[in-house]
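Here is one such protein, fold included:

. . .
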Amino acid sequence: MHSERPFVAKRACERNCGFVLQRKIERRDCKRIAVFANFVLPYEKLFDLRILAIESKRLVWYIIYIVFARATRKKYTASATFCTMTDSLGFKRKSGMLMAVSSLPSEWGIGTFGAPCKRFIDFLSATKTKCWQILPLNPTAYGDSPYQSPASFAGNHYYINPQTLYEKGLLDESELKFARHICEKTDYGWLFENKTALLKKAYARFKHIPIFERFCDENATWLDDYAYFMSLKEAFGYKAWNEWDDEFRIYDNAQNHKSEFAQNIDFWKFVQFEFFTEWNDVREYAHSKDITIVGDMPIYVAYDSADVWCNPSMFLLDEDLNPTVVAGCPPDAYAEDGQLWGNPIYDYDKMQEDGYEWWIERIKQSFKMYDILRIDHFRGFAGYFVIKNGEKTAKDGKWKVGPGEKLFDEVNRRMPGAKIIAEDLGHITDDVRELLAYCGYPGMKVLQFAFSNDDNEYLPRTYKDGNCVVYTGSHDADCTYSWCKTLKGDQLARFKKECLRLCGGANRTYAMINLAFGSIANLAIVPLQDWLLLSNEKGRMNTPSVAQGNWVWRAPKNYDSPELIERIKKTNKQFKRENC
């Protein structure tokens, strides 16, 4: 019995700590139950009782194992086999970087596919970073937000690389020279005025090939409507679809005129074909470097979108096709009037009739593009906030019950094992927590929200398991460098206690990164701006409720310096996130 105790302790440790103990049992030693344990001491200098003892009971089980293992007089050695029990993303202990494609340095007015993406993938590979999280790749419109897209299934043609078109023989040298537009910030105005015209020159040289015809056939359920929608957009000077003539404003009526726009419809299909061809090349290159792509899907679509125009019955619209209610969020400490987003609201009762087919197809489309999908505003599936259309603020809105488990039962039935991250930030209530637990998806832990009280759920020492994704900040938040400068009072005291004590006297931003990497979260993601120690003035991507100046940040040309590569690689190695 005495020699069996390590097995009892081992099983208890696995249940209670999430540690993996590797052992070999030889036949001749079965009666004695010889245990050769490679115990878990992955953190080198930082691995002390504070890190191991995520909860006090875990420390107890660790001590029990050590005592019983020593009692058998068997040797145990340190190894890097730390991992967590939950594995919903398909891996354990990786790191990622948040970086929008639009923010990559390039010669083309915006970050593009092709060489800019591949250079960034090489950078990730060199730093031993295993995941690249991007912002939505959907088209943008007024305001330039990828979260207010005119098409939830289509890709943004701004990302098509002119150099790639030139190499395919679709542009000549003079046209390639015209396409060059070097700028420190993304120039959406220039892109709007010039990119479509450039692509039409490429289309004029494009010859239909079998793979193009196959692409059109396989994507016809959304591509035909999107291409027609964009053709009509052009014809009406890019006015919103609800301002078109009735014969086009009403989708069914518009079908009578479709043949009149046949050539332009074919052009917009070519644009999507080129987008997905180039993006698939980027994704394959990422996979060749063992890089996982984490995509992003906004919960809502824009009112002025192909989705609403061709599927009006799926949204809460009146007889004139105007929204009866719109999306937003209630007043809080950051916005006394609440936030009025203006997106149309889904008619979930109608959607349920066909098993949420639109949502299923939309998520399937996302997984054609990404390996892991982050769903923005996940709390909206549990309960969502609506405001009567025409209101000036969100003060008088009300909560409605979302589709919840019924929708995700269908998702899991149709796409078993789908790797989804739930953006569960904001006004989180018990119904959201219950839905997240029901689905089993990892939620988000943003460290900038972690220091408001001593037992904040975003503090790494409070994480119950590794089934979560920890971030230093997000695309909507301050750059961590600037955020750290705002710390004062109790918040600063907690930061020093939780962060600086654990991570030594490092720069505060790097201390935050270390806190994230040292957590038990399966995935730790850091925006490139934080690695570069950029301030809000130099690196902020988006400021919610501010209409202008967002989504234009671009990384400096020398972002992939040898010094930064070495720092990131060292951090990944230090916290055992480089090889798992």
Remarks:
- The chain has two domains: 2-79, 94-574.
